[in-house]
Design goal:
alpha+beta
Length: 186
């Protein structure tokens, strides 16, 4: 009987620890891409080194990306992006911190696809604005994926485009985020 009690306690403790691991999800290889279109030129870039964390218990979501990590098809575009528009030396990171507004819709313990809104603060170019991001969270085979698409208006983040090239750069940029998360283990 004593052995059974000890074994039961060990199973409960293990289950408790395992459950705690499944309350947080993280990735260091998430993707953020953006695209803008004008009659003169399309501009797109991708960053595959996005750090992101989801705390499933609290519904908190955060991601952070180094601005210099965006890769362009044309080196000159990348140079102008970092030096002239995003001033990446002065503002090296873009950051989002928010919460899942309708957390009760998501069951991180069961496979499923969940449409949610994530509300939080997006900081780009040293300017922070509150945003509402429509997102899809997919739970499958013990893994979590989250995707969102949204539009950023350059003026909202004080990203100035010189008049000389104003017709070559759109006033808005379409942003897509795609992150595959693993259970966080402390």
């Amino acid at each position: 009987m004593k052995k059974l009690i000890v074994m039961s306690a060990a199973v409960l403790l293990y289950s408790s620890l395992f459950a705690q691991d499944n309350k947080k999800w993280f990735t260091r290889t998430g993707q953020i891409s953006f695209f803008s279109k004008t009659t003169a030129e399309n501009i797109d870039a991708k960053n595959n080194e996005v750090f992101s964390l989801i705390d499933a218990e609290k519904g908190e979501v955060a991601f952070q990306v180094l601005v210099t990590g965006f890769k362009f098809t044309k080196a000159l575009m990348e140079e102008h992006f970092n030096e002239n528009y995003l001033e990446s030396t002065k503002f090296p990171k873009a950051v989002f911190k928010g919460t899942i507004a309708d957390l009760s819709k998501v069951n991180f313990a069961n496979d499923g696809s969940y449409l949610v809104d994530i509300i939080g603060d997006l900081t780009i170019h040293g300017v922070t604005n509150q945003v509402k991001l429509p997102a899809t969270i997919i739970v499958k085979n013990g893994k979590v994926n989250a995707e969102t698409k949204f539009t950023v208006k350059l003026d909202d983040y004080k990203i100035k485009v010189p008049n000389l090239v104003a017709n070559q750069i759109s006033e808005t940029v379409d942003v897509a985020v795609n992150c595959n998360y693993d259970p966080y283990k402390s």
